[in-house]
Amino acid sequence: MSREEADRRLARLGAEHEAIESSLLALQDHAGRRLLEGAALTGVTKERWTAAEETLTRLWSHFDVCSRTLTEAREVRARRRHPGGAELEELSRLLEGDCMVVTGGVLLAEHIGWGELVRRMNTGYAEVLDVVAAADAVWSALPARIDLLSAELQRVAQLAHSVGVRPGQHPAGDDLEAVTEELSALREEVIADPLAFWVPAGGSSAPGGGRPDTTRYDRAARTIEEVRREIEAVIDVRKDAEDRLMRLRDLLSRADRTLAEARAARGEVLAKIAASEVPAVSGPPTALQEELATAAELRRRSQWHRLSPLLESLERRAEEELQRARESLTAVTAPLAVRAELRGRLDAFRAKAARLRLAEDLVLVERYDTARRLLWSAPCDLRAAERAVMRYLDELSALEKEANEERA
Asked: Do 39 and 192 meet the contact criterion of CB atoms below 8 Å apart?
């Protein structure tokens, strides 16, 4: 090496040495490393940290070797302002040769140069930093979030207790008990084995690339949110239970009155309409009335968690019962509606005959009397009455056609 080459090489290696020292000191002072060093680790974290500690010890050992070599090279360079051949040869050996002896690898001792030493140190540093940064990221993210979620869990549990939702008595109470145990176990596992909750980034990435695995945390959070919504629904029931019970009583009363009207209408139809199938009418909704009484008792005893699903079921079925009663009334009174329609059509046809000055026609009068007698007699034969109305219309249409032809 020339003097200029030796000086440039010394400067570059000095800068590399300072960068390595800064990196090792930063790693030594890393919060994640301090936590790992003092933690009671288990699982994959214990295994990887044990290997990382050995690597970190080896890094400092390699750093001491390169520090001594760099110091020796600087001393050789400082002997003379213009080094002679012996000094330049010694500098070449120290700065470019395999002059450094390292231990702790596969072999008991190896002679390597600066390039290989720096490469090994960079690789080891990346391995240790990957473990430290991943553990620190998990510890920084999950325990705090678990603690916040546990606080929310306690709030939800207090609400649940206030409305009678307890383990063994309600599914939501069982869910709260299960998620309480899950969060406690999750926090212990995260503290003891953080790397079990680390998802490395795919492909090539910088040390520590990846993200914490929040799958179990997210599942617990969803469970708590679902229970919270259910509890709030129960609280809403407590607030408006009396109003809902009153609306249910009104719905069932209207359904009962409609069915009573349908039964009365059925008797009238059977008396007034002949040769017509009239559907039967069911009795009052006694089963719903009994459940309504049960709901009122649950409200009186403040069993809101049982009252909530019962009210929802009652509201749905009461609406269905009222609709069924209305449909029954419509079906029962259909023959009366048909008779009323035929009466209206007959009167309209007669009015038309009067406008055409055909109302006194003997055949038309006879057919009108026949249709009217059938429609206003009891019981009324609807089929015969409809045929009679149509015969009256046919005769009226024929007379109207003749009159038009005569005028033409």
From this structure: yes
Distance CA 164, CA 238 (A): 11
CB of 352 within 8 A of CB of 362?
no
Angle, CA of 48, 52 and 57, to the nearest 5°: 155
Residue type, position 364, single letter: L
DSSP of 122-165, one letter per residue? Answer: HHHHHHHHHHHHHHHHHHHHHHHHHHHHHHHHHHHHHHHHHTT-
Q: Can you tell me which residue has the tokens 């492909």?
A: 203
Sign of CA dihedral 149, 151, 153, 156: negative
**Could you tell me the CA-to-CA distances from 323 to 33, 272, 295, 316, 333 in Å, in that order?**
71, 26, 22, 11, 16
Is residue 96 within 8 A of residue 84, CB to CB? The reply is no
Query: Quick one: pLDDT at residue 107?
Result: 59
Residues of the chain with pLDDT under 50: none
**How far, in Å, CA of 106 to CA of 98, rounded?**
17
- Reading the block at residue 344, the tokens are 């209206």
For 301-357, give the DSSP string.
TT-HHHHHHHHHHHHHHHHHHHHHHHHHHHHHHHHHHHHHHHHHHHHHHHHHHHHTT
> What type of residue is 297?
E
Residue 384: closest CA among 233, 305, 231, 274? 274
Helices (H), strands (E): how many in the chain?
11, 6
Give, in order, the Cα–Cα distances in Å from 324 to each of 81, 315, 329: 112, 14, 9
- Amino acid identity for residue 330 in this structure: T
Tell me the backbone φ, ψ of residue 111, rounded to 5 degrees: -100, 115
Beta-ladder partners of 212: 198
Contact 282, 260 (CB under 8 A): no
Residue-wise pLDDT for 4-45, tens only, equals: 787 788 888 888 888 888 888 988 888 888 888 888 899 999
8 Å CB contact between 40 and 5: no
Q: What is the pTM of this model?
A: 0.56
Close Cβ partners of 194 (under 8 Å, ≥ 6 residues apart): 45, 134, 135, 138, 139, 142
- What is the per-residue pLDDT for 319? 92
